[in-house]
Amino acid sequence: MSTVQRINFEPFSDILATQRRDFVLGDKTLADPMNAVALVDGEWMVINNSYQIERATSIVGANGDVPAVAQTSYVLFAERGRTDVRAMGVPKMPLLFMGPFEGDTRIFDSTQSAATDGAPITYVGQPLQVATITIGTRKYTGLVGRTATGTTAIVGRVTRLPSNNSGKLRFVRASSI
After folding, report:
1. In whole angstroms, what is the distance from residue 74 CA to residue 18 CA?
2. Rg (CA), the chain
3. Cβ-based neighbours of 48, under 8 Å, separated by 6 or more
4. What is the C-alpha to C-alpha distance for residues 125 and 174, in angstroms, rounded to an integer?
5. Which of 110, 112, 74 is nearest to 94 (CA)?
6. Does the pLDDT at position 33 exceed 90?
7. For residue 69, what are the contacts with CB-CB under 8 A and spacing of at least 6?
C-alpha cells in the first residue's frame, strides 16, 4: 500500500521533451493546503469544457465505488501548498501535458479489485488507468491496474513494481493522447 508524503511524484526520465503547462483550477479551493481534500502532486486531472482542470474522478462517490475515467488524464506536477501556485489571482496548477516521460508515484493502489473497475498491479508492462483510490482515510485520483477487458483510457504502463522501488510505483507514459 502507498503512503502520501511531501513529494509524491518524481520524474525519473529527463523531461526536456515533455511539455509542462499551467491550467486554471475549476475549484480554486483545491490549491489551499488547509483544505481537507487539497490536490497533491501525482494526482490525475482532466480538462473540462471551460479549459480548466478538475480531478479525473470524483473523490466523493455514493459508496466509494467511482468508476475510472475513459478520457485522457494528465498528472499533476505541483506539491501541496506551493505558494507560487496560490500567489496568482487565479490559481493555476502545472500538468505534464504533452510528451513521453517515466516517473515514480506514491498516488496509486496496487490492490484495487475489479469490483471498483480496476485490477491489482502485479507485473511490469501492465497497463494502468486512473481511478478513485483511498490511501489511509483519504481519497485521491491515482493509478490502478487495468483489466484486459477494460474500456478506460490507458495512461501508462508499469516499469517497476513498488516492492522493488522503495514503495513507489514507476510507470512510463508514452503519449498524452
Report:
1. 12
2. 15
3. 26, 54
4. 12
5. 74
6. no
7. 46, 56, 57, 129, 130, 131, 152, 153
* 142: its cell numbers: 491515482
In contact, 45 and 55? CB cutoff 8 Å = yes
> What are the b/e assignments for 134-152, b being 16+ CB within 10 Å?
ebeeebbbbbbbbeeebeb
Query: Where do we find the cell 503512503?
Result: 3
Percentage of residues of the chain with pLDDT beyond 90: 36
DSSP 81: T
Spatial separation of the C-alpha atoms in residues 151 and 109, rounded to whole Å:
19
Mean pLDDT of 142-151: 85
pLDDT for residue 90: 75
Listed in sequence order, the residues at least 6 apart from 43 whose beta carbon sits closer than 8 Å to its beta carbon are 55, 56, 75, 76, 107, 140, 141, 142
The pLDDT value recorded for residue 2 is 65
